[in-house]
Amino acid sequence: MTTEEEGWRRIIIEKPFGQDLASAQELNRQVHMAFREDQVYRIDHYLGKETAQNILFLRFANTLFEPIWNRRYVANIHN
Description:
Elements: H1 3-6, E1 11-15, H2 21-34, E2 40-44, H3 45-61
Parallel strand pairs: 1-2
């Protein structure tokens, strides 16, 4: 399947990642079982907070996005 047929897959990982080097390497191995490196975005914890708040504001303040960003259309979210 091409990307257009299966859709875009991305993952955002908030750092710190893992409890130590060994756990971070294991988590990274598991991430790469489902995602290629170019699909993985790693962000610092402090940078992610404001971004998440902006996404929530965009969803609820914009009537164009709110109807499609609800539980009927979002497959899953991991925290």
